[in-house]
Amino acid sequence: YIFNDNNIARVRFYIPSIHCASCIWLLENLRRLNSGIRHSSVNFMRKEIIISFNTGEISLRKVVELLASVHYTPDISLHTIDNRLEEPVNKKLLYRIGVAGFVFGNVMLYSLPRYFNGEPIEEPLGTFLGWLSYFLTLPLVFYSGYDYLVSAFKNLVKGMINIDLPIALGIVVLFGVTSYEVISGSGPGYSDSLSGFLFFLLLGRWYQAKTYQALSFDRDYKSYFPVSVTKISGDGEQNILLDEITKGDILLIRNRELIPCDSELLTGRALIDYSFVTGESEMVQKEVGEPLYAGGIQHGGAITVEVKKVIDQSHLTQLWNQSGDVSPNERSVSSIIDRVSLYFTLTVIAIAFSGFGFWMFRGTMESAILVFTSVLIVACPCALALSLPFTFGNVMRSLGMEGMYIKNLLVIEKLTRADTIVFDKTGTITVPDRNDIRYTGKELSAEETRYIFSLTRQSTHPYSNALAQKFNKVEPFNTSGYVEVAGRGIFALINNRRVKLGSAEYAAPGFKSDSDGRSSVFLSVDEEVKGYFTIGNSYRNGFAEVTEKLVKRYELFILSGDNDSERSYLEGFLDPGKIFFNQLPQDKKEFISRLQSDKKNVIMLGDGLNDAGAFMKSDVALSIADDIYHFTPAGDAIIEASKFHKLPAYIDFSRRSVGILKASFIISLLYNIAGLSFALSGNLTPVVAAILMPASSVSVVVFATFSTRILANLVLKGNRR
Fold first, then answer.
1. How large is the average pLDDT for residues 501-518?
2. pLDDT (mean) for 565-585
3. Which end of the chain is more exposed for a tag (fewer CB within 10 A), N or C?
4. Bridge-based pairing state of the strands 602-606 and 579-580
C-alpha cells in the first residue's frame, strides 16, 4: 500500500499490457465497473496504475481480480517491485513480434509463386503449402494475437467497447475464412494477409511506445514545483527542499501545511485532513507516537514529526494532479473527444459491415473480406484520443520549465475560457518587506517577544512569516488551543495567557492606530493591547506591465483585506470601481460567486490559504509562491513569484495552444476519412492498413509535440518575430 488509513487505500501496480489511449481511458474509468474504486490514474510511459479504493467496499484481492477481468493483469513479481525500470521493456510483446515475423516471412515465401504467376500453385504442392501456411497461422493467431482477442472479449463481457474490438474482429474473420477454405479445399485462404497485418500491427505498437517515450511530456509530471519544509536541528529552524529530507529528520508542520513524508508524530495535537490523498473530507485525530502519511494536511497548531520514510516528490505531485474536480464538463474539448472516441469504434464496425455487404453484392467474396478487414484496421481512434493529452501535456511541460506548475490538463482548458481575473493583494501583488517592520506601543518584554515568535511560527500568512523572521532568534514556548481565523488573526494559550495577533477588530477592538496607511498587526495579551506592528509592502516587479497587458483582454479586479491606504496608487492601474478593500474571506468568496452568476469565467490569484474559500469557488485558482514555497493543494496552478511578470504570457500560451489541439484533431479526422475511403474503394490491403494505423497516431503525437515546443519558444521565451 502507498496509503491505508480510515478505510481508504492507495496501491500502485505495474501492468505490461497497457499499450494505447483506449487502455488509459478504460483503466482511468474503473470506478464505472465498481463503485468501491474512488480514483485511478495511469502512467502510460511506466505502464503503471495508481488506484484509490474504499477497503470497506472492495478488497485488494477484488481490485486485482477486477483488473484481470478486463485483461490488465498486474505483474506483482518481486522483480517488478524491487527493480522497477524507468522504461520497462515488454518482453512478451517482443516475443509476439518475433513469432509474427517468423510466420509472416515463411508464409510470404510460400506465396511467392502465386504472386509471380498470378495463378494458383499446381497441385499437390498448392494444397501442401496452403496447409503449411495455415498451421503456421495457429501460433500467430493464438499467441501473437492473443492480447487483442482476449482484451476485446473480456471488455465485451463487461459491457465496454475498446479499440481492440475491430482488430479482434478482423483477426477472427480472416482466420475463419482461411480455416474454411483450407479445410474444405476451396482455396488457399488469407494466411499471407493475416500474418502480414498482425506482424506490422505489433511492430507498429512497439514503434508507438518507443516514439511516445522519446516525445513524452510524462503524465507523471517530472517538472516538479519547488516544495520546501521546515527542518528542526541543533542550528534551529531552516527551510530545506523536499529532496533534501532524510530518514530521521525532525520537521515542523504548521497550520494547514502538508505532511511531506510518512512520519511519526513527536509533539503537538495533530488533526489531519487526508482529503488530498483520499478525496474524503474527514478530519482524523492522531496522538503522539502514531504514524502520519504523506499528503495529510495539519489543522491547528504546529506539530513536529520524525521522518520514517522519504517519499519521492512525484508522489506528492501526483496527489496534487488528481485532487479536486477532475471531471470535464459536457462542453469541454476533452468530453467531446471522449464522446467521439466512444462512438468511433461502433461507427467503424458499422462501416465495415456496410462495405462488406456492398462488395459482396458488386464484386467477389475476396474483395468483400479484404475491404471488411482493411476498414476495421485502418480506422484508429487513438489519433483522436491522443490529440488532447499530448498537446496539453506538452503545454504543461513547457509552462513548468518556465515557472508555472499546472495541476492537470483540464486547468489549461479552463484558462483558455477565462474572461475575468481577480487579484488578492497581500502576498500576491505585494510582498511584505521584512526589513521595514516598525513597532508602536508598550515596550515588549523578552517573554512577550517569545510569545510573538511562538504564535507566528505556526502560521503561513505573509505577515506572520515576516514577524517570525524578525524574532526567530528567541526560544519558542509550547502553545495550546491554537486557532487561526482566516483574514483576521491567530490565537493561542501560552503559559496560561491568552495571546492574540491580527487585525484591530480581532486583537484590539476599538483601538486607534497611527500607521500612516501601512498594514498593521496588533498584539494583545489577556485582552490587554500591547501595541501594533506596521509592515511595509512593496509591489511585485512587473505588476504595472502585467495589468497593462491583461486589461486589454480581461476584466480585472483587486480584493484586499487591508485598509484603503493604497487606493490612490492602485487606481493608476485599474478603474476605481474594481478595487475593493476591507474584504473578509467570506466577502471574497461571495464576490467570486456574483461574477460567476453573471456568466463570468474567473481566474483567482492568491496564496490559497487565507483566501481558500474564494480559491475553491473560482474557475481557475493560481497560487503565487515566494522564496518559502508553501505548497497549496487548493490551487490549480503554482507560479514562482520571480516569474509573476510572465503571467500574461502563461495565459496567452495556454489560449493559443488550443489552436494546436484543433489542428491535431483535424489531422486525425482527415487521416481516418482518407483511410476509410481508400479501404472502402478496395484499394487498401490489410497489410498496408496495419502499417498506416500506428503511423496516424505517431504523426499526431509528433505534430503536437513539436508545434507546442515552437509555440513555447515564441510566446514564453519572448522569441517573437
1. 76
2. 87
3. C
4. unpaired
β-bridge partners, 437: 535
Cα separation, 451 vs 19, whole angstroms? 59
Give pLDDT, residue 720: 41
- List C-alpha distances in Å: 640 to 266, 408, 605: 32, 17, 12
Measured distance between the N- and C-terminal CA atoms of the chain, rounded to whole angstroms: 52
* Cβ count within 10 A of residue 517: 14
Angle between helices 409-417 and 333-362 (to 10 degrees): 100
Q: Which of 224, 82, 70 minimizes the C-alpha distance to 158?
A: 70
Give the per-residue pLDDT at 341: 61
Burial of residue 538, with CB atoms counted within 10 A of its CB: 0-12 exposed, 13-18 middle, 19 or more buried: exposed
Q: pLDDT tens digits for 109-140? A: 887 766 556 566 667 877 888 899 899 999 99
Do residues 45 and 220 make contact, with C-beta atoms less than 8 angstroms apart?
Answer: yes
Instruction: State the pTM of this model.
Output: 0.72
CA 30 to chain centroid, in Å, comes to 17
In angstroms, rounded to a whole number, what is the distance separating the alpha carbons of residues 213 and 222?
13
The total of other beta-carbon atoms located within 10 Å of residue 542's CB is 17
Kindly state the cell numbers that stand for 24.
Answer: 488509459
Say what the pLDDT of residue 630 is: 55
Read off the pLDDT band of 99 (50, 70, 90): very high
* Nearest-angstrom CA–CA distance, 321 and 52: 14
* Residue-wise pLDDT tens digits, 143-174: 999 888 888 888 788 777 777 788 888 889 88
Q: How many residues does the chain have?
A: 721
Cis peptide before 509 (omega within 30 of 0): no
The 3-state DSSP composition of the chain as helix, strand, coil percent (nearest 5) reads: 50, 20, 30
Q: What CATH number matches the domain at 3-82, 3.90.1150.30, 3.40.605.10, 3.40.50.620, 3.30.70.100?
A: 3.30.70.100
Query: Would you kindly state where each structural domain of the chain is located, as residue ranges?
Result: 3-82, 126-219+329-389+662-715, 228-322, 398-428+539-647, 431-538
C-beta separation of 711 from 660 below 8 A: yes
d(C-alpha 184, C-alpha 262), whole Å:
67
What does the alpha-carbon distance between residue 160 and residue 487 come to, in Å, rounded to a whole number? 50
CATH number of 431-538: 3.40.1110.10
**What's the CATH superfamily of 398-428+539-647?**
HAD superfamily/HAD-like (3.40.50.1000)
Residue matched to cell numbers 513536529: 304
Percent of the chain surpassing pLDDT 90: 20
CA distances from 618 to 68, 264, 601, 637 (A): 40, 36, 8, 12
Q: How far apart are CA 679 and CA 667, in angstroms?
A: 18
Task: List pLDDT tens digits, range 265-315.
Answer: 999 888 888 776 666 666 888 889 998 888 788 888 889 999 988 766 556
